[in-house]
Amino acid sequence: MKSFEQVERIERFCNYFNEWTVVKDEEILKNYGEDPWNREISRYISKSIIVLDKPPGPSSHQVAYWVKQLLGVQKAGHGGTLES
What we know:
Layout: H1 3-14, H2 41-46, H3 60-71
């Protein structure tokens, strides 16, 4: 699926419509990576950054532990402080 088609699907789902002008849709070169729309979810989980709005109460360390448990990964941490 082309990236612009994905944007249109999201807009239809949200009932938000915007006029877009596509100058050029990308071409995926197999020698230089893979199509992000067809990646396995495990690849995203293993190489991702999660933006999280931590609620008051649990520590940053606790939240990182919960993320590890929820995603079933061995490593997770936080950059900077999650405290407000």
